[in-house]
Amino acid sequence: MKDSVSLKVSLPVFVLVFEVIIIALYAVFVTYDDDTNAKLQNNETSPMENSLYRDYPYFADVQVMIFIGFGCLLAFFRFYGFGGMVFNFLTATFAIQWAILMQGFFQFYYDGKIHLGVINLVNAEFACAVVLISFGAVLGKTSPVQLLVMASLEIPIFAVTEWAVLKYIRINDAGGTILIHIFACYFGLGVTFMLYRPSLNDGHAKEITSYHSDILSVMGTLFLWVFWPSFNSALTFKGDDQHRAILHTFIGLSSSTITAFALSALFNKRGKLTMADIQNVTLAGGVTVGASVDMMISPVAAYALGVMGCTACFFGYKYLTPFMAYRMRIQDQCGIHNLHGLTGIISATAGICAILLATEETYGPSMYQIFSHRAPPEGDPQLLELQKVIPGLKPGLGRTAREQALYQVAAVFTTIGASTVGGLLTGLVMKFPSLASPSDKNCFNDELFFELPSDFSSVEAPLTYEGKGQMNPMDTKV
Amino acid sequence: MKDSVSLKVSLPVFVLVFEVIIIALYAVFVTYDDDTNAKLQNNETSPMENSLYRDYPYFADVQVMIFIGFGCLLAFFRFYGFGGMVFNFLTATFAIQWAILMQGFFQFYYDGKIHLGVINLVNAEFACAVVLISFGAVLGKTSPVQLLVMASLEIPIFAVTEWAVLKYIRINDAGGTILIHIFACYFGLGVTFMLYRPSLNDGHAKEITSYHSDILSVMGTLFLWVFWPSFNSALTFKGDDQHRAILHTFIGLSSSTITAFALSALFNKRGKLTMADIQNVTLAGGVTVGASVDMMISPVAAYALGVMGCTACFFGYKYLTPFMAYRMRIQDQCGIHNLHGLTGIISATAGICAILLATEETYGPSMYQIFSHRAPPEGDPQLLELQKVIPGLKPGLGRTAREQALYQVAAVFTTIGASTVGGLLTGLVMKFPSLASPSDKNCFNDELFFELPSDFSSVEAPLTYEGKGQMNPMDTKV
Amino acid sequence: MKDSVSLKVSLPVFVLVFEVIIIALYAVFVTYDDDTNAKLQNNETSPMENSLYRDYPYFADVQVMIFIGFGCLLAFFRFYGFGGMVFNFLTATFAIQWAILMQGFFQFYYDGKIHLGVINLVNAEFACAVVLISFGAVLGKTSPVQLLVMASLEIPIFAVTEWAVLKYIRINDAGGTILIHIFACYFGLGVTFMLYRPSLNDGHAKEITSYHSDILSVMGTLFLWVFWPSFNSALTFKGDDQHRAILHTFIGLSSSTITAFALSALFNKRGKLTMADIQNVTLAGGVTVGASVDMMISPVAAYALGVMGCTACFFGYKYLTPFMAYRMRIQDQCGIHNLHGLTGIISATAGICAILLATEETYGPSMYQIFSHRAPPEGDPQLLELQKVIPGLKPGLGRTAREQALYQVAAVFTTIGASTVGGLLTGLVMKFPSLASPSDKNCFNDELFFELPSDFSSVEAPLTYEGKGQMNPMDTKV
């Protein structure tokens, strides 16, 4: 293989450099937060009230999603199972440790230190999810070094955007629709635009699945499905807010799933089910309920959002992904624009509607907790009145529903702008030579980056015998 | 393939009709319960005491069992891995959203509304488990539309039975032995009786496993095994009751597992292990401890129950399943009668013994909490006395142990009766044409309902070369 | 196959004998502990404060590691997937029920009874992990009966060692580095030394992986990775101690993972990644942080420990494992000496450093809780002073940091000594005939102990055609 590339130098050098940087920064800046610091424990602190017990269950669930859910889901290519699962592992691990620092500087920095507890890890896992979603756009066409470069740039760009949106625009986005899904989607599209490979529009011999890889990928979907309620609710207020978030996510996913099956059969010419739909479109409901997931939208609205998100996602895969690839030079390998972009826009819109419709009649005084920026500002006597009923209520900005809705719109556009520009720049950097980028011919092939067991050749066998005619890239471009 | 069937019309129509019905009913009847309603939160409610934190961990564990445990376990056929895993996904998702409504009307309906929280989802998952167990009887021989029809009938029949037994007969059944396992088993047998296919008694060329499908199926078993303690304890009283339920389930499963290995080797003519035993018989202990799982039966009794249940289950697979198929027209594809029926009967009997043996000497006053129908009725002065020691104790019916035991017997027979009749009727409906039922020849074959990757033909290869002689349906009829 | 062996007699006899023993001992000695005993519940006990809710989440996570994590990880051989996963299931189940008794006698025995709750199960799972690690040394070369014999001896030897070390030497070892990892490693090496098979040093035709088995094994790694923080923190003090344990484990694993990728590429002659490294070396950080996991070592130290442990582990696989096999007659099949031994020694050393460096300035008064043997002894007036600030503080031994460090050293040597001798003796017993030990030729082959699906021959196919030249035992000897 003359066009082979090696990780022998690039990967170790990248890792070594970053480890030195991370060790230096951790040594200087990272310390324990109040709940992990032994010195602050005394007879006035109760061990079981440590924040650990509020955060860790959700952290563990999200870990399963990140490492096993994404890992299996991305292993759907027949010859790229190692790559999908293992590069996900590498990228996720790297992204989290980097995000701890980057988010730390913006969100958890005081007294000259970043303060660390499990809550930071939860936040870092969300940042990591952003990177993994973007990864979906370029799956099979990038080396692990390129992925690490992507992560090392996407994480700080995300951290800045997140900080700016949360601190200056101040939005409601419990499920991370805007900051996670929309950001990740447009960043990924920016990257893949820069890495455009015209020859891949005609399909690639290895861009296919196998019976076993399809099953593995469905397992990934199931792990994501099962723990998605934890993902969408990990950062809500505790109590009824988190309870609603879990309920809505479950309902949205359920309606989304049966809709995906129906559409898959309906639009297949022989009335059969397509595994790519089951692997991806079923999950659309989880994203679609995101922006309003903790609000009093009523269970039926969560159900309807699941159906709508799923429908948009399905047609996105069917029509938009090929269109973008052929006409817009955007090759969206896993269709992240359908599963995270279109659904994200619907979700953000639904969130805005829910904000506009929110009244004290429905929410009672806790409206000012959920829509915290609508709470009266510091010093307002109404605030004191409310704090009698909702003890922990923090002063807000006194925004009206309409104002908050406009800020949400601003946040969507800011996020799309920042992520697109960030993605384009990052894509440019990823084109640097010496990042071990695979040639077109070597895409979607584990042979390039892995020592392979001897039966890999037999995994290939059917190809040799049945020729290229069997493969329709549009069927497999999930 | 001339006898091909298509899902192009039937599946979308079914889903669309049901989605319209569900949206209408959700819109009119479904609202939040007290723990998900923002309006009811104030300075007297403590967020961390929300019922979410008591119910969600068990809900999440049961989710893993339903979607991943069952999904992998049912994917054991070599050519029906997509079907096993994916139809499980579809059926489960549908069953849960339907059960939320059906159980809602019977158990959570007041003030003209069904009130929703995670506790409803837990209950709905149990109803869903009922459907999936019944599914095991007809695995590989039904279309997804037939499965949805089955679920749409089984759920209301189950909800009525559950409500009648709990409200009028009033039983102890913490692990759901009677209402879940026995109901599901006889319902499934009723359905498969109606769908009898004489030609399949001679074995089917595709009714075999593969090396990979067997491993996948064991993974399913392991997920069920690991989380079964959560399943058996999700609806017990909190505190020591739930603690015992977890302990007994674990012990029962452990003794059941090593017994299954011993029997598998002992009754194999070459002294080898059979994967079907490991996939199924190991789990028998989880069912067998069910009916007495929260009682003070002592750890050794849980151990012994595991051994007994496992033994009954093993011999059921060996002798009863073939007998039922050949002589009684009951083709029990996954042997649910062994894993859920026989063990269920043993478990119910053990539960009755535990009820008869329960004394205040062993349980202390909390006996009247566990055996709640034995508590003194409203107005009885003894009740007030007991409530001083057990604050939350509810008035009971003042039943004696003997009376309660008789009611348990009545519940078993009622459940068997209702489920058998329900199963037969449902099976009749499932025979309607246009439900895309596969022909005998197309059973156990993903080709009928799925777009398949090109290597599916090579998954088939060994068959072509080695002929039918390799396959012994009795070996594979797990 | 003339050198075939059968489980027909040995396995059932072993299981039957043990079940009789266990039932007898459970009946006489095992009862409920205070949190599972209904009789002790009254108006002064609060159900939600039952120890169940503190222990069960960690128990459930460790269950996933034991049954699914280890199960998948050990299924990495191409022809031994059933064996790896299923013998792990059998051995684990047996080990736990046996450990409940053995640890029970040493740690939970009072009033003439072993008292049982979920906390016993957590401890038993740790004992089980010890057996499964040792199993790694002899994977593929032992019959299930031999494994049960090993477990039946290793569990009591472990229970005695654990009891002696905890009761007489008294150490800090929150993550179980010394008692779990070091014990398991040297016990396993002792066993494999006795079971030395010279012919296997030249490689074995079946000692290879397949594309699917490698993916399955990575899934096992991911499950271990994800839940390792729960493993390392399950037995720490609640509150900030457990919080730190989770944080450090996560950080150590993260740095270990990216280091493993870098080393794998750097030391491969073509700059490719080796799956065995990703399956094993990535996990080294979890062991390395173990001994100091709950101490105030600072996040950067956890990071550095991950890098160090990973590096030692990697070079162990590369140089030490072959050396031990050829020169020392120690065939360490899964390289447990690298993943548990070398990292264990590093971890124990780091723990000693952390003990020596611990000051009240860093820890505050809770230093005497974490380093409980440094607390003033009963009657010391300083103890009363401290108990005012740390209410639950128990009297200690008044050791200095230096003294405690010396006791840690003593514990390491005691553990290595006990485990090595125990392993050698156990290996001797395992050589008894009639334990169905496989011949050299039949190692790493499911055919010996399992009824196999007909496609097992095609799993073998590539071997037949491509000959032995493809296989390099050093590549696959993970």
UniProtKB/TrEMBL annotation, chains A, B, C:
GO terms for biological process: ammonium homeostasis. SUPFAM superfamilies: Ammonium transporter. Keywords: Ammonia transport, Cell membrane, Glycoprotein, Membrane, Transmembrane, Transmembrane helix, Transport. The chain crosses the membrane at residues 12-32, 58-80, 86-106, 118-139, 145-166, 178-196, 216-235, 247-267, 300-320, 341-359, 405-429. Pfam families: Ammonium_transp. GO terms for molecular function: ammonium channel activity. InterPro entries: Ammonium/urea_transptr, NH4_transpt_AmtB-like_dom, RhesusRHD. It is a multi-pass membrane protein. This is Ammonium transporter Rh type B-like. It comes from Haplochromis burtoni.
